[in-house]
Amino acid sequence: MQTIWAEHALIRGAWERDVHLYIAGGHIRRIVTDCDPADTRVALLVPAPANVHHHAALRALAEGGGAVARPEAQRRLLDRMTPDDLEAVAALAQMEMLETGYGACVEFHRLHHAPDGTPYARVSEMAERIVAAAGATGIGLALVPVHTRHGGADGRAPGPHEARFSTTRDQFARLVAGARAACADLGRDAVVGVSPHSLREVPAEHLAEVTAQAGGGPVHMHLAASADEVEEVRASLGARPGEWALENLPLDGRWCLIHCTHLDRGETRALGATGAVAGLCPAARARDGGHNLDLAGWLGAGGGLGVGSGGNLRPLLPAELAPLLPVFAAGADDAGRRLLAAAARGGARAAGRGAGRIEPGAWADLLALDTAHSDLAGLSPDGALDRFVRSAGTAAGRGMVRHVWSAGRHLVRDGRHVWRERILSRYEAAAAGLRAAL
After folding, report:
1. What does the alpha-carbon distance between residue 331 and residue 85 come to, in Å, rounded to a whole number?
2. What is the separation, in whole angstroms, between the first and last Cα of the chain?
3. For 1-438, which CATH class?
4. Segments making up each domain of the chain, as ranges
5. 411-436 per-position pLDDT tens digit
6. Number of H-type helices and E-type strands within the chain
């Protein structure tokens, strides 16, 4: 049995002092408060959120010096990325997200075929490489294969650079089965879900069959992510994306709706009332000058919140949290605490993962901040957590993360992933070839 003693731990939304956690089989088994220090000691312990929307392949674009995926660079990269490349790049991205405070990853996996669109001998080859990367990093994985069929809501064929993404229904079924078999070799916390990419790219008649393949896993879908999408879907299906989803999809707490930046007021509240999670990528959307979801209205209606890196090339937890602080009354002493707690709860649901809270029975996805860090020293627990969120992924902020556990696996110690050198070495071998594409 693994034990952790925390001077302060965030339990049921409030700070408890001198907390002793007993962990076995990846789960928190028992919590004792007001006890003496023992075993692994940390100053400030909170739930580690899941990254609910991650594109592993895009991490390689950071080699070109950018912060957000740009279409031309993305096309050049994807025209040459091999399975070995993807595995190495995914492992690097997973390591980085752990080191910035994420405890799990939802991989929105859509890079399926060879560069010319020919399926690999095993259609799940690329999905299996994401699983292999998770095996190398230890991160809790929710693998969400993406089904794409069309290049737009009018049914046009995918463009020449989209051939690697598109699957038939039969291919997708085999892909999900292969992903599920691969994940069986990971820890018991690994999850497989599905994603019908969006109402633009998936025919309405495919939706029931695709979503049924999630089994009990999560279902992720882009929804109302742009004005163009809203107009295309309205022209094709006769309703706005939000309206059509409310009338035709079995939305509930297993669904994670990505971006949701172009919902109207009524859609926001009605969709939130289904219990679905809004998967937001605030840092990437802010750089794109994008609209924002009415998050206060969504949460007030009963919806959940998850944060993800999306097109942000380096996954940085504070960078995704900081833009959302105003919704939680920025300036209030507990704004950072309430924001992180909401993102941890909603992120766990979006990952199909019994985590997001420090309590018996939950997976031990935990984040310990270093209160000896110069920017955190002397602050209250709320003050330290708020400062971490506001660091927005700066170099100083990255140094604030001391330890991270994923399902009890102690993967980040003293700010560094335990297998960092091995992961970096393999990535460097792959990056040498990818740099030529950028």
Report:
1. 44
2. 47
3. alpha beta
4. 1-438
5. 999 999 999 999 999 999 888 878 77
6. 15, 17
